[in-house]
Design brief:
Strands 5-4-3-2-1-9 form a six-stranded parallel beta sheet, with helices on both faces. Strands 6-7-8 form a three-stranded parallel beta sheet. Helix 2 packs parallel to helix 11 (about 200-215) and helix 4 runs parallel beside helix 5. The protein has one domain (about 5-215): Aldolase class I (TIM Barrel, Alpha-Beta Barrel), CATH 3.20.20. The chain contains eleven helices and nine strands. The radius of gyration is 16 Å and the shape is globular. Helices cover about 45% and strands about 15% of the residues. Helix 4 links the parallel strand 3 and strand 4. The chain has helices at about 5-15, 30-40, 55-65, 80-85, 100-110, 120-125, 140, 145-150, 170-175, 190-195, 200-215; strands spanning about 20, 45-50, 70-75, 90-95, 110-115, 115, 130-135, 160-165, 185. With about 220 residues, it is of the alpha/beta class.
């Protein structure tokens, strides 16, 4: 199975426009975070595998919040690909473009988005038939103008880029305006400390503001 055949989940991410990037330190709060985001109108997450409880937190959300599109981020190894697939994740994100990880994702059928920041990265992803790519780290690399430049030679291939890294409330609209960008990912919606503080109202409010801005932009 090629990664390009897993189109349905990427279409859903495109409709969501914003993927909330999460780092969760306690699995007990995972469901509450998801509900706070849904209440604010955001139904897609990328939960980073950066804490010991990340896999269990993903499992909690998949089992108890079926409305949420659940992705795992910072997927760096073949074992992690298998872990996130086994807990039912809808997709996986990686900061880079590891062929062994892509091979495993293809083998088991996990929709996967490798990270790219150069034309060579893009061409490696194309070798695995990846057409949805994580542009990372977006702002430090040069932001919208840089993305336009590296995407231009491949425009005829209809590649899609999901920018992450430095995306904020004030700059994400510029990315969404690009035809090649179906959605952005950002940690500003639910920052790690806000989750630790269990401040669900703040997460819901920020999510709602992002939805209002996105609607006004249309």
């Amino acid at each position: 199975m090629s990664l390009a055949e897993n189109k349905e989940v990427f279409d859903k991410i495109g409709k969501s426009k914003i993927v909330a990037v999460l780092v969760i330190d306690e699995k007990e709060v995972a469901v509450e975070v998801a509900h706070a985001l849904l209440e604010g109108g955001i139904n897609a997450i990328e939960l980073a595998l950066r804490t010991p409880c990340a896999i269990e937190a993903l499992k909690e959300i998949k089992n108890k919040v079926p409305e949420m599109i659940v992705g795992a981020g910072t997927v760096l190894t073949q074992d992690q690909v298998k872990q996130v697939y086994d807990v039912g994740c809808d997709f996986g994100f990686a900061p880079g473009n590891n062929p062994r990880v892509l091979e495993k994702a293809i083998e088991i059928g996990l929709p996967f988005v490798p990270g790219v920041c150069t034309p060579s990265d893009i061409e490696l992803a194309l070798e695995f038939d990846c057409k949805v790519l994580k542009f990372f780290p977006a702002e430090p690399l040069g932001g919208v103008n840089y993305l336009k430049s590296i995407a231009a030679p491949y425009a005829h291939l209809n590649l899609q880029f999901i920018p992450l890294g430095g995306i904020t409330q004030t700059n994400y609209q510029a990315y969404i305006n690009l035809p090649s960008v179906p959605a952005v990912g950002g940690s500003w919606i639910a920052p790690r400390q806000v989750i630790k503080d269990r401040n669900w109202d703040v997460i819901t409010l920020v999510a709602k503001k992002a939805q209002i801005l996105e609607t006004e932009m249309k």
